[in-house]
Specification:
Number of domains: 3
Largest sheet: 6 strands, mixed
Structural class: alpha/beta
CATH architecture of the largest domain: 3-Layer(aba) Sandwich
Strand order of the largest sheet: 4-3-5-12-6-13
CATH topology of the largest domain: D-Maltodextrin-Binding Protein, domain 2
Number of strands: 13
CATH superfamily of the largest domain: Periplasmic binding protein-like II
Shape: globular
Number of helices: 11
Helix content: 40-55%
Length: about 300
């Protein structure tokens, strides 16, 4: 198996066409076809099939595509690591960020990295937490913002903040709390709009409820922050989330957030990297900026209801 074969295969999947991939790769189409056939013979399986939509990956091809991407990225990172100048880092850095942290951190971080390191190509990936974990483990991401749920032992971790979670409803909702805080036994009686168990804040919420001998009665599972907001504004239920992704609606008076009085509902937000794949100088520079920007956002109050850990 050759590196060029991986590049050829990824290009075909990305462009959905042998002819377009051949043009981008500056290779004649028969030679490209021959290389892919040779790759499939070596692997003993079909990676691509032709459909009305063009060339598409088979199920085996989809799995191989993820690995090929990770390998090509690590090769690129290795090349950058030995050629870049330490005091002027360059290269591509990909950082994954969960939807519920993106509202507070993404734009300030993007702006700070562009201003400080113009030679770094900085790519932000907004994804569900479970997906980010797998992408970081496979090497497709250099860095990721993850929640410390006790499952991060396979990564280098730098805790950033401890973020309080609140009980949030639409203003004037039938599920709104009449007091300045809410108890767990009241909270669990409302229909709750929460992410699935594999993602986000849900495992932490379920852990706290188990410790208190309680469980949710009705759960509407929505993993998209945008859809979750719409469901809240439609008064389909309440949610338990940090305020940062809902802050614009709270400041406009469209939503109301109150703390939980009889349990500690919070999550630790950490900056993570692989223990097996070394960081490039560029990735280390971005990691440093993540910590600096986090401190700035907390001290200015732009990331509310958090305790600084970095």
């Amino acid at each position: 198996m050759e590196i060029r074969q991986l590049r050829y295969f990824v290009a075909i999947v990305d462009h959905g066409s042998l002819s377009r991939a051949a043009r981008v790769l500056h290779i004649v189409q028969p030679a490209l076809t021959q290389q892919i056939q040779s790759l499939e013979e070596e692997l003993g399986t079909q990676l691509l099939h032709r459909s009305a939509q063009g060339m598409q990956a088979t199920e085996a091809g989809k799995i191989f595509y993820e690995h090929a991407q990770a390998i090509l990225k690590q090769i690129s990172d290795a090349r950058s690591a030995v050629t870049q100048i330490t005091d002027s880092p360059s290269g591509t850095v990909e950082l994954g960020i969960p939807q519920s942290v993106s509202a507070a951190l993404a734009f300030p971080l993007l702006k700070a990295v562009r201003e400080s390191y113009p030679d770094i190509t900085f790519q932000l990936t907004e994804e569900l937490t479970g997906n980010l974990t797998e992408q970081l483990r496979s090497g497709r991401l250099n860095l990721a913002i993850l929640f410390d749920d006790g499952q991060l032992s396979g990564f280098h971790t730098q805790p950033l903040v401890e973020e309080d979670m609140m009980y949030v409803t639409r203003a004037g909702s039938q599920f709104a709390c009449k007091r300045k805080s809410i108890r767990l036994d009241q909270l669990v009686r409302a229909p709750l709009i929460l992410p699935s168990l594999q993602h986000g804040v849900r495992p932490r919420i379920e852990q706290v409820l188990r410790e208190q001998g309680k469980s949710t009665e009705q759960v509407i599972e929505i993993t998209s922050i945008a859809i979750l907001k719409s469901a809240l504004l439609a008064d389909m239920g309440a949610t338990i989330l940090p305020v940062s992704p809902l802050l614009p609606e709270i400041l406009r008076g469209e939503m109301v957030a109150v703390p939980v009085s009889d349990a500690k509902l919070s999550r630790t937000v950490s900056l993570c990297s692989s223990k097996n794949i070394p960081l490039t100088n560029a990735a280390r520079a971005v990691a440093k900026r993540v910590q600096e920007v986090t401190r700035q956002l907390v001290s200015s109050g732009d990331w509310p209801d958090v305790k600084l850990l970095t």
